[in-house]
Amino acid sequence: MSSPTFSNAKAHTDSPIAYTKQITMNFIALAFLMLFSAASQALVIFDANVFYFTDDFTTDVSASAKRTLWDLSLGMNLSKKGRIVLGWNYASSSFEDTADSETTTLTISDMGPKLSYFFDKEYVWSLGFTYNLITKGNYDDNGTTKEFRGTSMKVDFGYTPAISENFSLGLKLNYYKPAFNEQISGETTLAAVSYSRTSIYPSMSFNYRW
Fold first, then answer.
1. Does 143 reside within a domain?
2. Over 90: is that where the pLDDT of 176 sits?
3. For position 176, which CATH number holds?
4. Nearest alpha carbon to residue 95 among 87, 107, 86
5. Residue 140 placed within a domain
6. What is the rounded CA–CA span in Å between residue 97 and residue 2?
7. pTM above 0.90, yes or no
């Protein structure tokens, strides 16, 4: 990811878009809390997913890449059969690339609602969609740092067979795309940007139902 040229900069770090997103996130989080309180007898699912990858390549120039992505969500069923689950997601991802002793890293945190559908009553096959209202990225290009803000989406298709009455373990295939529309550099300069990153990756998946 190369260091881009920025435009439309202004000396302020809080934009109306960021403020609106924060208010929206707080409202949705409160709504989820109220829903969970009102539906204490409903099926609740805790879901966790993790992926780690590292690669080193040595020729005349050494190069390496590291990827770490994980997410957690807590949801409850919205249907009588329990196959539609709505919840709240928190995710973190890290991308690190090194070539000829120069390192670039992008670390992202996400938060937003997640909707899942289970194709069978045993909760083995699933399809999930997450829209993260708050996405923040910290980008370090060999010592030059910038902060990105935006949103992200993730689609996952999973196979998680039960290994006990309440616990399941399996795999998911994930499509993840963060999109950034704001950048902060030098701690004071806010600029409008249009950056994105796309990742397709597998993950170990764990979920617990009660």
1. yes
2. yes
3. 2.40.160.20
4. 107
5. yes
6. 11
7. no
Bridge partner list, 160: none
What φ, ψ does residue 24 adopt, rounded to 5°?
-60, -45
In a domain, 1, yes or no: no
Give the domain range for residue 186.
Answer: 9-209
Q: How many domains does the chain have?
A: 1
* 35 three-class SS: helix
Q: Which structure tokens are listed for 150?
A: 């935006």
Of 140, 72, 154, the residue nearest 107 (C-alpha): 140
Q: What is the DSSP string of 72-85?
A: EEEEEE-STTS-EE
Q: Give domain status of residue 57, yes or no.
A: yes
3-state class of 28 per DSSP? helix
How many other CB atoms are found less than 10 A from the CB of residue 140? 14
Looking at the predicted structure, is the pLDDT value of residue 146 above 80? yes
Residue 142: pLDDT over 80 = yes
Mean pLDDT of the chain: 83
Distance from the first to the final alpha carbon of the chain: 43
